[in-house]
Amino acid sequence: MAVIAGIDIGTNTLRLLVAEMENTQSLREICSAKEITRLGEGFSTKKAFLPAAIERSVAALKQFKEILKKYSVNHLIVVGTSAVREAENRDLFLNEVKRQTGFDVQVISGEEEALCTFLGVNLVIKNQTEPMLVIDIGGGSTEFIGAEGDAPNFLLSTELGVVHLTEKYLKSDPPTPEELKSLRLAVDKVIKPIGYHFPPKGLLVGTAGSITTLAAIDQKMTAYDPQKVNRYPLSRAAIERIYKELSLMPLEQRRKTLGLEKGREDIILTGSLILLAVMELFGYDPVYVSDYGLREGVLIHLYQKEYEETSS
């Protein structure tokens, strides 16, 4: 039994997972943590990390390092996704992380991110015989993964990130109908040309913070429960209702919504709209939600590399 740890440095959220693994079909969580640091703040203006965003993110990574000291970890992987891929001053950030934490960050491609997301989701949505489309709506990008059985047949990474799009289009509080319309047009412009990849009939599975938050809101969760989120069928009608209600609220009122995690109140509208666009344009209903995603997939990928490949 190996103890594996992974850290996912996202555009909006940093996540830590420590788990026991003896194969790639399951993992037993020992510890998890996350911090919303908004590392990609300001990217809609210039693709460079702000000093305050670097400071917040490094502080969170230092907290994760303290947590890791409590466990006998065999292998650790730290990955950077969309924001770290794109930042003009990413070397400054990576060097600062190394200096203050000792972590070596692996910057993964959009396709690698999509593959790891699929590996994570596959732990939850098992034994599917029908075609499946997985959507991972992140802070800096949105990934689409098509699959039949256990094998993905396409991996697409797009620049539809909820942090960037929110900053660019939703400038009013609450956003105006014109702003929301402009945002939807921008989303459709990206999604429509790639829709021919999507299976016309099959399962839609959604992962990452925007979608899991919608599942939590729909269930009026006072405390987030991954077990109630995994495989939750979230209907298009429920998403439309939540989206319409939240779009009329100023941020201060939105923060009081049951199930809405603090730090997501501004970006939840954009995440909802991306998901609705996919469901409306291509006829999916419901979306099955997976709490598992990139973070879990990174551990599976690491386990394969360290244990299965070396033993073969």
What does this structure look like?
Pfam families: Ppx-GppA. This protein is of the alpha/beta class and 312 residues long. The chain has 2 domains: 109 residues, Nucleotidyltransferase, domain 5 (2-Layer Sandwich), CATH 3.30.420.40; 167 residues, 2-Layer Sandwich (Nucleotidyltransferase, domain 5). The model has no long low-confidence stretch (mean pLDDT 92).
Share of helix, binned = 40-55%
Percent strand equals 15-25%
Q: Please report the total strand number as a whole number.
A: 11
In round numbers, the mean pLDDT is 92
Total of helices: 12
Order the strands across the largest sheet as they lie in space. Answer: 8-7-6-9-11-10
- The CATH topology label of the largest domain is Nucleotidyltransferase, domain 5
Count of all domains:
2
Largest sheet: 6 strands, mixed
CATH architecture of the largest domain: 2-Layer Sandwich
How do the SSEs run, as a string of H and E? Answer: EEEHEHHEHEEEHHEHHEHHHEH
The CATH superfamily of the largest domain is known as Exopolyphosphatase. Domain 2
**Distance between the amino and carboxyl termini:** 18 Å
**For the CA atoms, what is the radius of gyration?**
19 Å
Name of the top-level CATH class of the largest domain:
Alpha Beta
* Uncertain runs: none
Layout of helices and strands:
Blueprint lengths: L1 E8 L3 E9 L6 E9 L14 H18 L6 E6 L1 H5 L3 H12 L3 E3 L2 H12 L10 E6 L4 E7 L2 E8 L3 H8 L7 H18 L8 E5 L1 H10 L7 H4 L2 E3 L1 H12 L3 H4 L13 H15 L4 E4 L3 H18 L1
Parallel strand pairs: 1-4, 4-5, 6-9, 9-11
Antiparallel strand pairs: 1-2, 2-3, 6-7, 7-8, 10-11
Helix pairs in contact: 1-3, 4-12, 5-11, 6-11, 7-11, 9-11
